[in-house]
Design brief:
Homodimer. Its EC number is 3.5.1.87. The chain is an alpha/beta fold. The protein has 14 helices and 16 strands. Helix 1 packs across helix 13, helix 3 crosses helix 13 and helix 11 crosses helix 13. The longest helix has 21 residues. It starts with 7 loop residues before the first helix and ends with a helix.
């Protein structure tokens, strides 16, 4: 394995260009807004495209508007990397962009190194990974594989449908509407490996003072709304006790505590899950089916409403845990004399294990580059997860790996999101080293997993 090192100055150069695209204000204090299929996202993609062309790469777009930059030459197999460059409203410029910049520089470094390639190299800049605007995750990567639900085209952001936004950016939504893949089958079948570099979006690497996270799996999520219905009564005239009060807020409070205890018990038994209730009695509109506006300081609460999300890499384990959690919720409701409705509105299965040979290759690459590293699951979904879900024509999965780099205090989706040029450079060097090994050696995996 030959080490390929990326210069941090090129990372700083690209950020000097991207920091002016989609920034909410000039000093970057309010972060960025590069919404999916917006002018800002298109401008950022165009910047990457020009940098790739200037470096001698070939560029094209697929039918979903994703950018593909690749090394010149005719190859039947390709080693790919990619990430996204859109942001959540008020987000930072490292979630996604760090992976795009690293992928670009990895391809350019290998291309100019004189490495004899047996497989071509590709960078994919996926459109619309973030769900904060249209409520749909990984729009571009799902559309590439024909996995985007056509109903997503009707989702709106600031009064504009996703289909309309696509058309404004020169993308025909009929490919998605017809259920067709934006990527040809032969191109999909030729992907030998796909690697994505991303900021961790957590504190594990920073806390451990570690350079690299080799991602072992990707957590999926199951999300539900829990609606608790009690009885509105006078707060002073109604005695305490369940025989008098059917207090929805009190029942909800007990549900949350008992769910926390249930999760800690599952973790202690070795089940890798996290759960969150991020919204509790969220502000209700006048026409909301949940009468939260009828609650008052002088009333026993008759209505409560909260979100319940469970994340885990194993879908069966998430489902089993949720069954237990829902039973705890129902039992608590019965104990407090209230009724409860559970509405599961999103269910994204996780990826139980990313490609083991790529994980071993990345481990070896870290040793070659002198980088400290550890193995960890990804708590967030990524386009790499969409790729890992796909099957080739012969029924085999696409081998996928992920590299995490630290981000300051684990902050993401915020103007305070930050990874240093040195942290990005270390990850980019590992990405380039691994991609070069796969691209230059037909039997690269034999060294890491010898045939039996």
């Amino acid at each position: 394995m030959k080490a390929i090192c990326i210069n941090s100055e090129v990372v700083m150069h690209h950020y000097a260009g991207l920091n002016s695209i989609g920034s909410i204000n000039a000093d970057l204090k309010n972060g960025f807004l590069r919404a999916p299929y917006s002018e800002a996202e298109s401008e950022a993609i165009a910047y990457i495209e020009q940098a790739a062309i200037d470096g001698g790469l070939l560029c094209r777009r697929d039918l979903a508007g994703n950018l593909i930059a690749e090394t010149p030459g005719t190859f039947s197999e390709w080693v790919e990397t990619g990430s996204h460059i859109d942001t959540v409203p008020g987000g930072g410029n490292f979630d996604g962009a760090a992976g795009v910049i690293s992928g670009l520089e990895a391809l350019l470094a290998i291309h100019h190194s004189g490495t004899a390639l047996k497989r071509g190299l590709r960078l994919r800049v996926w459109r619309g990974e973030e769900s904060a605007t249209y409520g749909v995750t990984s729009i571009g990567s799902k559309a590439a594989f024909g996995a985007l639900n056509p109903a997503a085209l009707q989702q709106t952001y600031e009064g504009q449908s996703l289909a309309e936004a696509m058309r404004e950016q020169g993308v025909d939504p009929e490919t998605v509407r017809s259920g067709l893949a934006a990527m040809p089958d032969a191109e999909r079948d030729g992907i030998t490996a796909f690697l994505e570099l991303h900021i961790e979006q957590g504190k594990v690497l920073e806390t451990a003072d570690t350079d690299i996270g080799i991602v072992s799996a990707i957590r999926g999520s199951k999300r539900s709304w829990i609606t608790v219905s009690g009885t509105f009564d006078h707060s002073g005239a109604t005695p305490m006790g369940v025989e008098f009060r059917q207090d929805a807020n009190l029942a909800m409070a007990y549900m949350l505590v008992e769910l926390d205890q249930l999760l800690h018990k599952a973790n202690a038994e070795g089940v890798d899950l996290v759960q969150t209730s991020g919204l509790i009695n969220p502000s209700a509109k006048e026409n909301s089916p949940v009468p939260l506006l009828d609650n008052a300081v002088t009333k026993v609460s008759g209505a409560a409403h909260f979100s319940f999300e469970v994340r885990g890499c194993s879908a069966p384990k998430v489902d089993r845990y949720c069954d237990q959690a829902f039973e705890v919720i129902r039992e608590t409701a019965a104990r407090f004399g209230v009724s409860v409705e559970i509405d599961t509105f999103s269910d994204q299965a996780g990826i139980e294990e990313l490609d083991s040979e790529i994980q071993r290759l990345l481990d070896t690459g870290c040793t070659k580059l002198g980088l400290s590293h550890l193995s960890l699951p990804s708590g967030a979904w990524h386009d790499a997860g969409t790729v890992a879900e796909q099957l080739k024509s012969n029924g085999s999965p696409i081998p996928v790996g992920m590299i995490f780099i630290p981000c300051r205090r684990g902050i993401s989706h915020s103007p305070d999101e930050l990874s240093s040029p040195e942290q990005i450079t270390k990850g980019a060097s590992l990405l380039a080293t691994a991609m070069a090994e796969i691209a230059s050696n037909y039997r690269w995996w034999w060294f890491y997993s010898p045939p039996k």
